[in-house]
Amino acid sequence: MRKYILSLAVVAAIITTVNASAQFRYGPMLGMDITTMKFNQKLFNVDSNVGFSAGLATELMFPGIGFGVDAGIFYQQRGATLNLGEREVWASQGYGKERCYLHYIEVPVNLRFKWTRMNGLEDYVAPFVFGGPTFSILAAHSDIKALDYPFGDVGLTAGFGVEIYRDWQVSGSYTWGLMTAASTKLLDDFNSKNRTWNVRVVYFFKSR
């Protein structure tokens, strides 16, 4: 019983210390992306397209060590142009260049490291790196009858950025989609995965 009480006391002390020292911030995010859909076979050309993202970003940092976690909830438009007309199997059905829009509700969760010991320079400019999983729920998509779409996607993201005057953050990242983004109905085992470059700007409100 004493060991149980002591363990609870240690956990409570750790949680209290983390809450006291951690700095939590949140703010709006706007961004743009360049996405392509990488198919497991090259049967036709796929052109990258530009999309955008917007939402709420959060950051939890531990002062002194530079490590923390960032997360958010975003709307993101991805997609690519599929040149289906290059193959007779689709050209015979009237398909040509088809713009495939994918609209996701995205929840990224990243570990990050921010350089915060630069003799005061970090008050003006502080670089950071981050990486982690991104969970995406498909909210809507283009009405291309030749394709099937799954419920969502899971990706791995890696990126870097810079914090400016402690309030603004500008970042660039690359996300490797791990699950099928779209598959064709006529051909078995012919599917694609998202590959996305993101550039995002976040304004964080003052930390509490």
From TrEMBL:
It comes from Heminiphilus faecis. Residues 1-22 form the signal peptide. Residues 23-179 form the Outer membrane protein beta-barrel domain. The keyword Signal applies. Keywords: Signal. This is Porin family protein. It comes from the Bacteria. InterPro entries: Beta-barrel_OMP_2.
